[in-house]
Structure formats: C-alpha cells, structure tokens
Design goal:
This protein is of the alpha+beta class. It has a single domain, classed as 60s Ribosomal Protein L30, Chain: A (2-Layer Sandwich), CATH 3.30.1330.40. The chain is 32% helix and 25% strand. Helix 3 links the parallel strand 5 and strand 6. Helix 1 crosses helix 3 and helix 2 packs parallel to helix 3.
C-alpha cells in the first residue's frame, strides 16, 4: 500500500481530514527541494476549515492537547508535501523532525507532545521509513500563540 492510500486509512481511523496546504505568511517557501531532500518550513496545527489550535502547554493546554496539536501540524506538513510532490508515494523516508513546543518553564514533556507528529508519520510511511532523527524543544512563544510548530526533512524520489 502506498503512502497516499495509507494516509486515507489513517485519516479515517483518526476521524480527521487533510487540511489544504498552508499558504506562506511571510517571506519563505513552504517546501524547498535540494537534490533528493525535501525541507519543509515550520508548520502550525491547522484545524479545518480555517482555524488554528491556540494555547500554551502547561498553562492553557495539557500534554494530550499538545499531542493533538502535533498531529495537526503533521497533517499540514503532509498537505504541503502532497501539494508540491503530487503524491506522498514519492517520499522514501523521514530524515529529521524538529518540533518546537510553546510551553511553560515547568513543562518538560516536549518529546511526548511531538510524538503526535512522529506517530502520524510512522503510521503513514511505516515504522522503518516513517521514523527519523528528531529534536523536541520547549520555547517561550510561537507565531499566533500556537502550541507547536514543526519542520521536517524527507528523502524523496526524483
């Protein structure tokens, strides 16, 4: 089963939908391809039809809500990949994820939050190709007050 088919299955199981690929809100490209690597800009947790998850983890949201925000940021990444590549079947593997978590100084479960995106990518691309290197860090603020921002690098077929 290809990644596009697997995504449809995962979305059905989670009762979620793929958002439209986000438009840049500044001077950047959502995806840049260099050789056989696709680099995404930071993606935020989109809630269709036109909303965004907002809040600070440890203050307004708990870790479970942060996990959900990471899933939604992962879906936005997949929407960008599909829009630019034409199909997710061109993705060979996840190389690296960087997850930034808008949280209080006391919150120390950033990796558990970013697991939302990591699990989504593992479900779509499989346990070997869907799990790459990763960093999860806490930050004092993110754009628009969102709980997470995630960027990723993928190896792709030409």
């Amino acid at each position: 089963m290809g990644a596009d088919s697997k995504l449809a299955e995962v979305l059905s199981q989670l009762n979620l939908e793929l958002p439209p690929p986000p438009e840049p809100k500044g001077l950047y490209q959502p995806l840049v391809i260099v050789g056989n690597l696709a680099y995404t800009s930071g993606h935020l947790p989109i809630v269709p039809p036109a909303g965004m998850m907002i809040g600070r983890i440890g203050q307004d949201l708990d870790g479970k809500a942060g996990y959900e925000a990471a899933v939604r940021a992962g879906l936005a990444i997949l929407a960008t990949l599909r829009a630019h590549l034409g199909t997710l079947d061109r993705v060979r593997r996840v190389v690296k994820i960087l997850g930034m978590v808008n949280c209080t100084a006391e919150f120390d479960q950033q990796p558990a939050v970013i697991n939302g995106c990591s699990q989504l990518l593992a479900d779509v691309f499989g346990p070997d190709a869907g799990i790459g290197a990763r960093s999860a860090v806490g930050v004092a603020a993110l754009p628009a007050g969102v709980p997470v921002e995630i960027e990723a690098v993928f190896e792709i077929e030409p």
